[in-house]
Design goal:
7-stranded antiparallel sheet; hydrolase; alpha+beta; Glutamine Phosphoribosylpyrophosphate, subunit 1, domain 1
């Protein structure tokens, strides 16, 4: 109503994803008797087809889930370590690893999807991958967001002669530019998914498909080896949690960088935000200051030990930071990596949230890294490979400088919240280092100000950058932005009211009393909600 998306509810399951066809793929699995874990893998695989610029089986990701049969939150980490073959000594700045074969890290998404289905699902890989295979084989017409991504990235990739011919043959075989309504058929990807469904993930990690990928990378000067692929292992982790507005919010632990999100919430949980005008200067000033303070802690203590993490999240540390939060003095500091970045981070990621009628709830955030990842498409496979070594820290002098075999810290932060020991909310977003920022902003809107879930996701958000810079969707009043400037923020409005620089959030909530599911999808992308 009134130009907003309606609140979507169901009592039989809910899928919120960044594309309508992917949400429908997950809902199809639920309707066929699959559970949330089967539906999550089906949705993730379908996103490989309909959002090939955002994520795919050759990317990486993390999942946070409530397993109803075990009455607990679990985390699956499918972000493999930095490959043993990575020649870290050859690089001194991130931009050297933005594109090309040397940027490709060991893919984890396929292994993650298969592990989720094997451990907690009930369907076969053939059933789980069937919707994605059909979409790739039959094709689909590009919607607005997808068309814009192709129109933006085609000319950028065309400037890289070693990569563009294979990329172009895969995504525009007739040679014509992709635009709104263009039909994208991915026959090679359909065949690859069918082979994996039949032979299992080892076809990629130890078999002929992996050999084809490695051979192509090495022909382009890459370093990834079959030993790197075979070394990929899925890691089940215990989540970390923090309280906010009566919820226990769970995210993956380090090396995931989601503790910044939880620290932000802890700082704000001691503030009476509800008494302040929503989207006014008092509200936004506190939220932006808390985000920047938490980002500083994450950057200074990246991938902390359990002991250091406990210290960062301790009451004493939170109280110290909260005094800084409320002292009125400007907060200056980085939000990205150890030193100021040369350019905006071109991250492309996607997130999905799913619930089923059995009480399972899962949030997955997954990515290729940059738009179309490394830009490397392996001929005959339909696979576009990630560029996650761009997220390794190769900056000389950084205390977080990466080396082969190190954990790869990841700024994804799929969240699962409980109240009184029952699952109530799965919420995740893309956005690179903005992920932990925009999740905190939406949680404040939903929990502190009481906005319904869809409206909380639609509320104006901001992206903070290194130093004092904060860019705010222009639906926030100009006088509010002027007051933020007066308070020490280098605040300015985006030239639009909705921008994916502030994420693309998908969420599912559960009312523990009625069992009703509520889904919410972000209009900043092609987000959609589907039910079985």
């Amino acid at each position: 109503m009134h130009g907003r998306r309606p609140t979507m509810t169901s009592r039989h399951g809910m899928v919120a994803a960044a594309h309508p066809l992917a949400a429908q793929a997950g809902a199809r699995l639920l309707a066929q008797g699959g559970n949330a874990f089967d539906a999550a893998a089906a949705t993730a695989a379908a996103l490989n087809v309909v959002e090939p610029f955002m994520s795919g089986l050759a990317g990486m990701g993390l999942a946070t889930m409530w397993v109803a049969a075990e009455k607990r939150v679990r985390v699956l980490d499918f972000v493999p370590p930095i490959p043993a073959s990575f020649p870290a000594e050859r690089f001194s700045k991130r931009s050297d690893l933005e594109r090309g074969a040397l940027a490709v890290a060991s893919p984890g998404n396929l292994a993650g999807w298969c592990e989720i289905v094997k451990t907690h699902g009930r369907k076969s890989l053939a059933e789980v991958f069937a919707p994605a295979i059909a979409l790739a084989r039959d094709g689909f017409a590009l919607a607005e967001f997808g068309a814009a991504e192709f129109e933006e990235n085609d000319p950028l990739l065309e400037k890289i002669p070693a990569l563009y011919p294979a990329w172009s043959k895969n995504y525009r075989p007739d040679g014509r530019p992709m635009h709104l309504g263009s039909v994208l058929v991915q026959s090679d990807l359909a065949r690859t998914l069918s082979e994996i469904a039949e032979k299992g993930p080892d076809h990629f990690y130890r078999g002929a498909l992996g050999e084809k990928v490695v051979a192509h990378l090495q022909a382009l000067g890459g370093s990834l080896t079959m030993a790197d692929l075979a070394a990929v292992k899925m890691v089940w982790r215990e989540p970390m949690a923090a309280s906010f507005q009566g919820l226990s919010v769970h995210v993956p632990p380090p090396p995931c960088e989601g503790f910044q999100f939880l620290l932000t919430l802890r700082l704000l949980d001691g503030i009476d935000l509800a008494s302040k005008p929503r989207d006014g200067a008092d509200h936004l000033d506190l939220v932006y200051r808390a985000i920047r303070l938490a980002a500083g802690e994450r950057i200074a203590h990246n991938n902390p030990s359990p002991e250091k993490l406990a210290e960062i999240m301790s009451d004493a540390s939170v109280e110290r930071l909260r005094r800084r939060l409320t002292d009125g003095q400007p907060v200056t500091g980085p939000t990205e990596q150890w030193v100021p970045q040369e350019q905006e981070d071109p991250a492309h990621t996607t997130s999905l949230s799913i619930a089923d009628k059995e009480g399972n709830l899962i949030c997955i955030t997954q990515s290729l890294g940059s738009p179309f990842g490394s830009g490397v498409v392996v001929p005959g496979t339909g696979l576009c490979l990630n560029n996650f070594l761009y997220w390794a820290d190769v900056q000389p002098g950084s205390p977080n400088r990466s080396k082969p075999g190190d954990a790869l810290p990841m700024c994804m932060s799929p969240s699962l919240s409980t109240r009184n020991g029952k699952p109530v909310l799965a919420l995740g977003t893309p956005g690179s280092y903005g992920i932990m920022q925009t999740q905190a902003q939406a949680m404040v809107q939903h929990l502190a100000f009481g906005l319904p879930l869809q409206q909380a996701i639609e509320a104006p958000r901001a992206r903070l950058w290194d130093g004092r810079l904060v860019e705010i969707e222009n639906r926030v009043a100009p006088e509010t932005i002027a007051e933020l400037v007066r308070r020490g923020h280098e605040a300015r409005a985006f030239d639009v009211g909705w921008t994916m620089r502030c994420g693309g959030m998908q969420a599912v909530a559960i009312d523990p009393e009625t069992g009703v599911f509520t889904g919410a999808a972000d209009p900043r992308r092609d987000g959609y909600v589907a039910t079985p």
